[in-house]
Amino acid sequence: MHDRVSGRPSTHAALAFYDDQHPPAGDFLADVLDGFSRTPKQLTPVYFYDAKGSAIFDEITALPEYYVTRTELGILDQIGSELSALAGPGAVVIEPGSGSSVKIRKLLDALSVPAAYVGLDISGEHLESACQEIAADYPDLQVGAICADFTQGLDLKHLTLESGRRIIFFPGSTIGNFEPEGARELLSGFRKAMRPGDAVLIGADRVKNADRLVAAYDDKAGVTARFNLNLIDRINDELGGTIDASALRHKAIWNAEKARIEMHLIAIRDLHFTVSGREFELREGESIHTENSHKFTPESFTSLAKSVGFDVLQAWSDPADLFTLHWLEPAAKA
Ligand code: AVI
To answer: Which helix (H) or strand (E) is 159 found in, with range?
Structure first.
């Protein structure tokens, strides 16, 4: 059997095609040493999602305080027929990050005879199992998997399917975890991979009451604290770190000026530790900044989209305006 994406032999019979070019994952040690050498110290959120971190994130999505996932799913439930009309028959759905199978299933179920689903992810194993499940449950759908780092651009040149519109599905407000410049680069990468008539369906969390936002990232049950501290466990387990996690306290802050929730780990006493033999100090009260989750207004999201050549054709929000799903298309040339 041959890989219909790349033309290379496919080793994965249940998938219609599979591009098996595993990209190098980020260098965890180099990134941690670099982040700990900065003032304030910082870590990059991509490392939250090992198997344990991904399982804790699933717990977060079910928390009463974390309205994000529930709200987006509710919007998807409401707009199925509109999405079907916009996408038309035979759509090819492309999902960078291939995340929640519940969301992609809602979208596929809403569309009128979608032709194909293509997942893209840096983690080959996760990607393959997610795509195998879709292939098993949607026998009439062509299912593909491209193992790639989509933050470096969306390389779809091997995707030769001559079907309907391509819909790039990027839910969850993951766009908010990128810095503004990174968000522009990511969307611009999507834009470059698109042909006339293609579209992006993208979720974005809204600016709202600060208390509500902070509660969503500092829940009563302490699940988000565990998620944050799992990064420290990873550093200790995988990089020979000696950080006393019990001396770090999870904190979520609303930074109104930058319209973002920041997650920090604050030292409750002076700490001295090593990572792979390199020595570091953390003074009492000092923070390790672990994540930003940017929030958007309709205006700020539209201006982000416009800055990289998209028009927002449609936007759907829940009744309380907590979250918005947007349908973007390449801007019509003036
Ligand atoms: C994945 N991402 C959209 C989540 C967010 O809301 O920014 C990650 C998260 N971090 C803490 N809670 C959830």
So the answer is: none
Comparing CA positions, the residue from 141, 99, 79 lying closest to residue 327 is 79
Tokens of 272: 């001295």
Retrieve residue 138's tokens. 């949607």
Instruction: Give pLDDT tens digits for 63-122.
Output: 999 999 999 999 999 999 999 999 999 999 999 987 778 999 999 999 999 999 999 988
Nearest to 157 by CA among 19, 309, 22: 19
End-to-end Cα spacing for the chain: 46
* 49 in contact with ligand 1, CB cutoff 6 A: no
Averaged pLDDT, 207-221:
98
277 C-alpha to ligand 1 centroid (Å): 31
Interaxial angle between packed helices 298-307 and 180-193, expressed in degrees from 0 to 180 and rounded to the nearest 10: 50
| Tokens 């008539």 -> residue | 197
Residue type, 223: V
For the Cβ of 177 lying below 6 angstroms from any atom of ligand 1, the answer is yes
Pairing mode, if any, of strands 287-294 and 278-282? unpaired
Atom 2 of ligand 1: nearest residue by CA position: 174
Ligand 1 centre distance from Cα of residue 2 (Å) = 38
Cα(32)–Cα(235) distance, rounded to whole angstroms? 8
d(CA 117, CA 114): 8
- Note the pLDDT of residue 98: 77
Percent of the chain with pLDDT over 70: 90
For 64, other C-beta atoms within 10 Å of its C-beta total 11
Q: Which atom of ligand 1 is nearest to the CA of 228?
A: 11
Is the model's pLDDT at 57 over the cut of 50?
yes
Q: What's residue 262's pLDDT?
A: 98
State in Å: Cα 6 to ligand 1 middle: 33
The secondary structure of residue 270, as a DSSP letter, is -
Chain centre distance of CA 326? 16
**Positive or negative, the Cα torsion across 285, 288, 293, 295?**
positive
